[in-house]
Amino acid sequence: xxxxxxxxxxxxxxxxxxxxxxxxxxxxxxxxxxxxxxxTGSVIVAGAIMGTLVGGSSTVGTAQLAYSYGLSAWWFxxxxxxxxxxxxxxxxxxxxxxxxxxxxxxxxSEYGQTSGILASVLSSIGTxxxxxxxMLAATAVIAVMLPKLGTVPALMCAAALMALYVIVGGVxxxxxxxxxxxxxxxxxxxxxxxxxxxxxxxxxPLVNEIHAVEAKAIASGxxxxxxxxxxxxxxxxxxxxxxxxxxxxxxxxxxxxxxxGKSDRASRKGALISAIMIPxxxxxxILVGLFMRVHFPPEMRILASKxxxxxxxxxxMPAPLAGVVLATLLIAVVGTxxxxxxGIxxxxxxxxxxxxTRKIDDPIKNLLFSRxxxxxxxxxxxxxxxxxxxxxxxxxxxxxxxxxxxVVFVPLVCALWFRGRIDKKxxxxxxxxxxxxxxxxxxxxxxxxxxxxxxxxxxxxxxAIGLMVGKKPAQELKP
Length: 479
Known about the structure:
Elements: H1 3-23, H2 30-35, H3 42-53, H4 60-69, H5 75-98, H6 103-111, H7 113-145, H8 151-167, H9 171-199, H10 203-219, H11 234-249, H12 252-259, H13 264-295, H14 308-316, H15 319-356, H16 363-384, H17 393-417, H18 424-444, H19 451-469
């Protein structure tokens, strides 16, 4: 690190934190904090979605996976784009029509408080896992900036930045900062990809270098097709993409973004902007991962895969620009963790605490509770992010998306499109059985494809049986 690196980092961090604080001036109560009062435009909706979805997994994690498996690392950003397209075309209007502030609230109104609490707890666990993955990605960036800091202090710095990112302005801060972050990320990731092509003198020479790496892998018995979207196997990589789709559609943070829009049109446009803008970011990370694989192969033992992107930036970019990009990557990670923690705090407040006590009904107390809850969630993530977990950033993100999808997706679809037709006991069974199937088949490896398929299939079967049986009239339920 040189003084010019530090200047770039400091200027960028000041700009982003300043925008966050400025955006939070209009937040007076919990409703403004959670959904912006339902008055945000399409650009802020897109910023809130991308500010959370495009984080450590889309940048640091993508370059890490590309270092080992090549093009299949695209599934996080490609799947994210597909998910936003489905959100825009199929879910925006039904979600906003319910008038609820949370996804779990939609389910609770249809299937009762028990289903809501179960879904709240289980989906929050899935979201929390993704916060841990962002903590791990943050340490990879902070380690480059402050190599002597140590893991625990780096995690505490990441948590503090996440709190600052969102605790002042809630969804308003997440949206406004998300827009700025996206602009900077495009400069960072697309710029990195261009630098790779300049260094290798074009796409064809890079391809030839990767084929040489593949030849060595074949000779050693560890062949990898670096130019296949399914390098890890169709079941694994298709499951990863599907995890993104189900995860985005069932995560409170993205629902809050579309609920914050001033109209259905603004929310749909914001989701469509996200669908178009997200996938290209992954291409830059893939090019960097492939380049670093060629020039710093694992057998040299001088580069950890999770550091592929940050080391490339430090080694191959002009110092001031490298500083800006490193700060942007840090904020990308921070923004995702902050947005996810905002989603958890909203679920806990609205769908759990308010069901058992009226102490936070006052808007000011509710706002204070939301902010304290974010801090507690982030501190818990710090405590669980220590240890030898640094090489599984993207795996954690996919696992998180899969668990959330298994818990919420099928019950949510039933609540939106099959209202009054399925008895709540079938939905409650689905909420419990589906994530258990994901965990059981994921740990045991009893199937050759992603265990998310098993979990979603279990939920569909259970709720389909409930649809065929039908819902008993209210008078029949009385003893």
